[in-house]
Amino acid sequence: MPRKPRLPALLAYLFLVSLGLLLYVSGREPHEESEGVAQPQSWVPEAAEGAKAKEDPNKSVKKRGRNKELPANPHDYHMMINKANLCTNDQKLWLLVVVSSSVPNFLRRRAIRDTWGGAAALAASNAKMVFLLANSYDANLQKQVVEESRTYGDILQEDFVDSYMNLTLKSVMGLKWTSIYCPQAQYFLKTDDDIFVNVPVLLTYLQESAKTRWITGCIKQKKAFRPVNAVPGMPMPPAHPPFVAGAGYVISGDLIKELYEASLVTRPIPVEDVYITAHLARKVNAHPPIHDARFTCGERVTDDCDLAQGFTGHHIGPERMYRVWEKLNPNGITSPCFDF
Ligand SMILES: *[C@@H]1O[C@H](CO)[C@@H](O)[C@H](O)[C@H]1NC(C)=O
Ligand SMILES: *[C@@H]1O[C@H](CO)[C@@H](O)[C@H](O)[C@H]1NC(C)=O
Question: What are 63-102's pLDDT values in tens digits?
């Protein structure tokens, strides 16, 4: 029988083992290279840079700790409905609008087509629009969507579960599709199907000066993150890096492919706006985004006419969509929004 180790030796052994473990773990903590401020860990994106990290041990130490175990993050869902030629003959396209929608939202899509997203209205602004859908696994709804796509030619659909938690996948889908089928678009606007977009006003602004490597929208993150052991009065960094609200943000076309490629090695989180405009934007050195209060941060639009000067308005259901549109584009009479 082996001799029982004496207590002090056992304690010393345990101490060394825990010290080693501690050093190992702290060596693998994420390190933030930029900004100079120590950021709380809560929002640190965890990259999955599998192959690269293995080749370069220095890099894997500098970057996030658990990289190597995370799988790459391919976005390789089958396209159930595509519209591959939407941009083909449009080399001077100014704006591609991608509207995150959901299979059953037929009325919302119709209201958008009948108002700000109508093909004729958009053509006048050199803009195009597509809806992003995923799979509802409902045969009857799917039949209607296929029919809708035949009629309007503005539906893109990929085969992943159409759910709120999967909105991030929908936005990545928009980036992927644009980088393959519409890379010439000068600007990319991501919005939702309950948003009124004032395309002419937005376009006028975008055309004032050429923007490159540029993301703009309404910066939502302002609150500070306070750890329990914070020293009173100590300035606190935000809980998320600055990001712009998903209700409507614009990205210059030169970043779309880079952002898509960054998504392939960045673990998705369920908040699409934080993911795209903060985590991916940081990866491609296009962070922070530029704040512009003419984009909605999600607040209710009190007066329809407020949308005459703004770029986007949130919580606009189909009925109000028509009403706002008629106020801004009255047939033959003066707009009530402009007669002051
Ligand atoms: C890692 O860093 C050390 C010191 O900075 C350097 O000498 C070495 O070449 C680097 N290794 C790799 C694989 O880049
Ligand atoms: C998102 O879509 C994937 C692929 O279809 C699916 O496996 C997953 O369950 C979905 N997640 C949610 C939260 O709906």
Answer: 444 444 444 789 999 999 999 999 998 889 999 999 999 9
Which position has the token pair 């076309």? 253
pTM for the model: 0.75
DSSP bridge partners of 290: 216
- Residue among 52, 55, 58, 62 whose CB has most ligand 1 atoms within 8 A, to mutate: 58
CATH code of the domain in which 269 resides? 3.90.550.50
> Distance, CA 59 to ligand 1 centroid (Å)?
9
Consecutive H or E run containing 38:
none
- Determine, yes or no, domain membership for 73: no
Please check whether residue 146 lies inside any domain of the structure.
Answer: yes
DSSP codes joined into one string, 297-338? -S-B--SGGGGGT-SEEBS--HHHHHHHHHHHS-SSS--TTT
Specify if 43 maps to a domain: no
CB-based contact 90:186 (threshold 8 Å): no
Helix, strand, coil percentages in the chain from 3-state DSSP, rounded to 5: 40, 15, 45
Q: Which of 102, 137, 165 to mutate to test the pocket of ligand 2 (most atoms within 8 A of CB)?
A: 165
Please check whether residue 119 lies inside any domain of the structure.
Answer: yes
List the domain range (segments joined by +) for residue 143.
79-224+238-328
Considering its fold, how many domains does the chain have in total? 1
